[in-house]
Amino acid sequence: MKFASSPILTHRLAPGRSRFVVLLLLGSFLVLLGRSFYLQGFQNDFLQKKGESRYERTIEISATRGRILDRHGDVLAVSTPVKAVWAIPEDASLKPAEARQLAGLLDMDVRELNRKLASERDFVFVKRQVPPDVADKVEALKLRGIHEQTEYRRYYPSGDVMAHLLGFTGVADEGQEGVELAMNGLLMGKPGSRRVIKDRRGQIVEDVESIRAPQEGKDVTLALDAKIQYLAHSLLKQAIGEHKAKAGGVVVLDVRTGEVLALANMPTYNPNNRVRLAGAQLRNRAFTDTFEPGSTFKPFTAALALEKGKFRFDTPIQTAPGRLTIGSATIHDAHPHGVLTLAEVIQKSSNVGAAKVALSFAPEEMWQTFAGLGFGAPLKLGFPGEVGGRLRPAKSWRPIEQATMSYGHGISVTLIQMARAYMAFARDGDLVPLSLTRVDAPPVASATVFSGQTAREVRAMLEMAVQPGGTAPKAQIPGYRVAGKTGTAHKLDGGTYADKYVSSFIGFAPASDPRLVVAVMIDEPSAGKHYGGDVAAPVFAQIMAGALRTLGVPQDQPLKPLIMAEAVKEGV
Amino acid sequence: MLRLNFILLLVALVCALATVAANHRARKLFVEYEREQSRMRELEVEFGQLQLEQSTWAGHARIEKIARERLAMRPPAPAQVVQLEAAPR
What we know:
The complex is a heterodimer of chains A (572) and B (89). By secondary structure, chain A is an alpha+beta fold. Chain A has helices spanning 7-10, 15-41, 44-55, 96-106, 110-117, 132-140, 163-166, 178-182, 184-187, 226-242, 279-282, 285-288, 298-307, 342-347, 351-359, 363-372, 399-406, 415-426, 452-465, 532-551; strands at residues 56-61, 68-69, 75-87, 124-130, 146-155, 192-198, 204-212, 220-221, 247-254, 260-266, 316-318, 323-326, 329-332, 339-341, 430-431, 447-448, 483-493, 496-509, 516-523. In chain A, strands 2, 3, 4, 5 and 8 form a five-stranded mixed beta sheet that branches. A five-stranded antiparallel beta sheet of chain A has the order 10-9-19-18-17, with helices on both faces. A three-stranded antiparallel beta sheet of chain A has the order 1-6-7. The longest helix of chain A has 27 residues, at 15-41. With 89 residues, chain B is mainly α. Chain B has one domain (2-72). Chain B is 75% helix and 0% strand. Chain B is built from two helices and no strands. Classes of the chains: A alpha+beta (572), B mainly alpha (89). At the A-B interface, β3, β7 and α10 of A face α1 and α2 of B.
């Protein structure tokens, strides 16, 4: 039978029905078309985003904090990744055995762990700064609700040797003390992020865009010489123990560049383990503690006298009978000396002599010299907690104060200020800005305080002070000419001078062409000796000798047996 | 005319397949690149840790202790030091 002759076709349908079907189909098509236009046209952005979120991921790129290096590139501080273990307390319902296992791995108390997991919050840190190998073991336990994230921990391989200069960082790897804080902006990296496409297995298959490029923290190269720093630290530590002192500080400066080669303080702490840290250990005394310098201040008075032309190197000054009464107060020398030249006043450290010199000048002249040397104002090295000490305006000085200031009482300074001011003698009268970071080009002198002639003459006086007949023969170093000055200052205790002392020695070598300034300060030596020449001078000599050898500075004096004559007692 | 269309269709098809293949290859290479990058980061971390270890072993306190105690070394007396003059350049 042919299809065309099928009997069904002979049956004619009503024309309305077929038209209805055609219109229905056409209508459906239009609805579909409209819907697709709607989705493509109006909803496009939203849907595109939804789609991308299925396979696109934004990932954070962490940036490491820069390292701190010493001048030779030895690593002093470095960040390495560790893990923070955190939990969503709601999800983390650990069985007692699991909790014990986790607590055991993390080296914490089970009760403490359970207390943390019972917290109401959505997010708790179980333990931070977990070493990577421990973190891997924790991860292997596959506990529900326990997660890990990478963070950084700072390590200081040299430990307590340079703790004060370097400082330390907090748990989020941001600087909190010392160079870590002072140069935080430079050291800190900026984390970046980028958008990528990930496949089913979580592998990144395509880079979509970089939202923010990460910025690695920059390395900081300090001026510090790790060898000299170790020397300064260990010799200071030894001296503090020997003299049963409360505290102490050492500063080593490079005369030519103004670099801080070493800076040690006692008591110190281990920056890698900062449990039980007390304020006294944290203090960077060389920068933040002021003290009355005592006789180490006399050379500035002598320099003023030479500079103004009123005194010469050998101008005689009557210091007999070893005391001088100004108003109601009397200044004493430890030993009466009689007539001394200006040079001998420094050599034998006569208070009366220094006071007499000072009283021949107007307070303004003295103030200008002291302020020009940087006293009374912070050095502005960018170091946290730096102080400037106290130098009162000249108008308020009474004669007795002017007299005591000439030998370093009634004024307060920091050790680093003293060390820098001595650079004026070591450098033919000018000063350079100090630097914590390595200086590659010789710096430009910032201020000329004294003439070259004055500086050379004071240098000669300071050389006399360490020779037999001076206050510090123990500061001598075989093979090198040394110049320096002792200081023994009474400490103010509740407004009156108590029987406590600050012993100090500041000097430089080789005297023929100074390379280093070393300043030593020992606070409250209480094992019998307290004169700067007995307590601080030997520390100075050992540090200076070691540092000169380390730097390979040629000797400037033939070897000869040192004459360790009994030191002349200085005025206190 | 029909033959030309057929050829063009074939060309289009080949191009499409080539695009797919190239894309796949690119992604594969990218995965490899990513792997090397993360290896680099790991090595950097290891380098940091090794530096740390090195400076711990080479600590001045440790060197001094070993030099003094195990090797019985001491600083030379000043008389034992011979100073050499550098030749003028």
